[in-house]
Amino acid sequence: MLAKRIIPCLDIKNSRTVKGINFINLKDAGDPVDLAVKYSEGGADELVFLDITATKEGRGTFAKLVYEIANKINIPFTVGGGIKSIEDVDVLLNNGADKVSINSHAVNQPSFIDNLASKYGSQCVVVAVDAKQIEDDWYIHLVGGSVKTEIKLFDWAKELEYRGAGEILFTSMDHDGTKGGFANKALKTLSELINIPVIASGGAGKIEHFTSVFKEGKADAALAASVFHYNEIEIKDLKIELNNNNIPIRL
After folding, report:
1. pTM for the whole structure
2. From the candidate CATH numbers 3.20.20.70, 3.40.630.30, 2.40.10.10, 1.10.1040.10, the one assigned to the domain spanning 5-244
């Protein structure tokens, strides 16, 4: 069985790491380079770096910060935010990113996923999926969660796999920042529906939530932000507890 992964997420706005609740009320959480080094040295398996306002503000993801991070850490990291072209991806990969994450543009132009997978390989393509539960269905939201679509989560996940996405980063908007636990029921459905890795995001608050997201949610990786940024959970302690619960993890 493949080892589960612990992935701190750095949401970036104006070159600072920020964190909010339900995608709003953003607060400063520190310098992204300093945090990246801390996590790399502290046992994180990967990092995700998202320029969260790039799409809304019409900017491309700035490569300078990516380059600086890449030159100071030794673990893989994914970069996303405002990616709309092969040229955008070339710049990010050339500056040190290992993978790219696309979201809004994947919905607006699904063939972009095919193109990226064809040129770089599926292992390089992460599709971020922000969804909110409305009655009995989960619906995809775009532009930092501010625009609802009529696309249903599970239908979209199957299409993403078909088009060549290597991983899906699923964030439950209802759980984001609440520290009440991950959306395990939806995650379990996703993980059983598709054959590519599912990264769980939204809701981490204590170590037990990570245990349950792997056991109950069947996630391949768990992503979190504030619990790591504010030193509420130490990654090494988390991994020891996961190992004690017979969850395969790199110590």
Report:
1. 0.91
2. 3.20.20.70
